[in-house]
Amino acid sequence: MRANLLRNLKATAxxxxxxxxxxxxxDGGVTSVSELDKAYHNWYNLDARQDKxxxxxxxxxxxxxxxxxxxxxxxxxxVIDSGTxxxxxxxxxxxxxxxxxxxxxxxxxxxxxxxxxxxxWGFLGNAAxxxxxxxxxxxxxxxxxxxxxxxxxxxxxxxxxxxxxxxNTYLTTRQNYEKELDDRLKVxxxxxxxxxxxxxxxxxxxxxxxxxxxxxxxxxAIQTKDxxxxxxxxWLVLKxxxxxxPESFRGYQAHxxxxxxxxxxxxxxxxxxxxxxxxxxxTDNKYGNNDVIGPRADHGTPVSGIIAGIRGNxxxxxGIAENVEIMVLRAVPSGDEYDKDIALAIRYAxxxxxxxxNMSFGKDFSPQKQFVDEAVKYAESxxxxxxxxxxxxxxxxxxxxxxxxxxxLDGTRASTWLEVGATxxxxxxxxxGEFSNYGKKNVDIFAxxxxxxxxxxxxxxxxxxxxxxxxxxxxGVAALVWSYYPELTAAELKEVLLQxxxxxxxxxxxxxxxxxxxxxxxxxxxxxxxxxxxxxxEALKLAEKVAQKKSL
Length: 552
Known about the structure:
The chain has helices at residues 7-19, 58-65, 138-150, 161-209, 216-220, 227-241, 246-263, 270-274, 300-308, 339-351, 369-381, 467-484, 490-499, 536-551; strands at 75-81, 120-122, 324-330, 356-359, 385-389, 417-423, 445-448, 452-456, 460-464, 502-503, 508-510, 521-523, 532-533. With 552 residues, the chain is of the alpha/beta class. It folds into 2 domains: 31-136 and 277-551, Rossmann fold (3-Layer(aba) Sandwich); 140-263, no CATH class. Strands 2-3-1-4-5-6-7 form a 7-stranded parallel sheet, with helices on both faces. A two-stranded antiparallel sheet has the order 8-9. The protein has a two-stranded antiparallel ribbon with strand order 10-13. Helix 11 links the parallel strand 4 and strand 5 (385-389). Helix 13 crosses helix 14 (536-551).
């Protein structure tokens, strides 16, 4: 998902342009949660009544409802994402193992079409072990495909209905491309100018101190009558006081470079070089490898940790479900995912025993949506619950696209699909994440997704935001409930989660927006179909009633 994990980075460009400074960017995490703000540690597990924090009451559920109960079923949650660090100390004992596959023998022992798929599969690579890290956006790929035919068209006269639709798509993608590329290039130009001044000032300071690295205290302690040295010192001190660090600056430079060099590069096509498949042919499916970590496990790892991170070990965070396994499916690059990869990943999950599929990704265009629709229908027919992040573009997805979606091309809607928006720990007007998508019709439920302390690769932790992390909160609660009440169908489990969600009928919140001047209020109840926040305690109570009624 394009906007996930990047609230700080999204704010950085505006902050930089307005003040000449830089906000802090994601830096890869810390080795202990004690280094992070305690206020954000495990708050999603808390209870609004007991703890005065609007979490999803997981701790209360374990302490009051499950203390003398034993789970009846181990629930398998497939995480379709960027890749997951299956060796993380808080995850490695919770990773799904394909017991019908002999590790490392180079043979497809279970004849499922995937060689050595011990923990899942990676759809972003090849048998030689090469993997895709970066990709273009879908609209860039569409523009690249459509431009040769339509770039010189000036009128729709003479075009068939299908060609007119394609031409309109071309115009939309070209507009999107040109606007975003222009925006990113302007930011890059400002960053380059900033970098030039920074290098000049650092060279002056370094020469004076006789070393390349120094502390802010050493910088402030410089006393001089040299005007150049004084200007360099004063400029750097000002930037450090505004929150600048060289690390955050370089991180943001790299972030912008990714857009220019990869996401928005019409000539960049790693798929053709690495995977070498036809992405428009769903039957061309003999590709990928068993590397489920991949080159960027920074997104799938926190997602998986919310669902299944070991509880109560005193090490880091507490995941939500205990009797659970994570099936890792790597299909989401840095950039936009391919519909075909998502469809095949869903089918893999269903065929290999997943009960729940978490999908924390999304995009604005879906040229092979029929592939995903058929896979979703397949999952639905096999009693699988699908949980999807609503997206981080502050938009109403009742009126604007965010794919994949529960709405199929044939007009039907998936009955075992949950669309999830993100909330904060503040039960006030800022309750809904300022980035979160919403929709009375197409968003089903909300869950914590702002300022969460989560797992990062290499046994690290970080504070993150996004509906990408609200979605696994719902997946985790669903897995927890299903492990104790496996007699429920996926459709029944979905209804249990929706009906038991905590409602705040009088709570007014800001409509999600990135524009601080455009804040308007709405009832929280009007931003989703259920009007509620998922709640483990209430869901388990309702599941008990539904299960008892079914047994009569």
